Amino acid sequence: MRDGATVLVRPITADDKARLREGFQHLSPESRYQRFQATVRELSESQLRHLTEIDYHDHMAWVALDPTQPDLPGLGVARYIRVAGHPDLAEVAVTVIDAWQGRGLGTLLLGLLSEWAAAHGVRTFRAYTLTGNDAMIRIFRDIGARVTRQEAGVLQLDMPVPASADALPDNPTGRAFREVARMRA
User: Is residue 58 over pLDDT 90?
Assistant: First the structure.
């Protein structure tokens, strides 16, 4: 991470339900509202199944953990779900627990997710966010997102999924994505 902290990132599995449920409790009400655009107090069993029992092609998710305490709640998750009827388009979401926000974890997770998506035929990420989610809007704009206003207070961000690290812009987010690609190589 930017501050020198180390995280373990791996694909999410069905065994992560309890970790996800507990991690959700480490989100402030504001963070929960930013992520779900609704007041959500806890994740249901149905939601947990949907978020952890994935096919790794049309629905992919990476989870970040503290490598010194891998049994503790996840620190963050980035996922995409391919849009039915549009094989090159996927809705994307990134969630980072409050204590880890602003440290580059969301960018790291989105970079990994972008690599995976490109390898699986996704060309565009679509995200919906509230107008006040400045960090997410900045990251997506850095990679070339087209921003359109939806209903009151909600933006749609369509971000091209970089085909390779060479296609990334020379800005903080592009450099972070390139570093993710370099580390994985």
Answer: yes
Cβ contact 21:43 at 8 Å? yes
Domains of the chain (ranges, CATH numbers): 8-184 (3.40.630.30)
DSSP string, 115-145: HHHHHTT--EEEEEEETT-HHHHHHHHHTT-
| Rounded-to-integer distance, Cα 125 and Cα 75, Å | 22
pLDDT bin (cut points 50, 70, 90) of residue 11 is very high
Give the DSSP H or E segment for 142.
Answer: helix 134-142
Task: Give kind and range of the element (H or E) at residue 91.
Answer: strand 86-96
From the list 160, 146, 37, the residue with the least C-alpha distance to 89 is: 160
| Cα gap 140→147, rounded to integer Å | 9
The CA–CA distances, whole Å, from 143 to 131, 139, 185 equal: 18, 7, 21
Fill in the amino acid letter for 141.
R
Give the whole-angstrom CA distance, residue 27 versus residue 118.
30
Determine the pLDDT at residue 184.
66
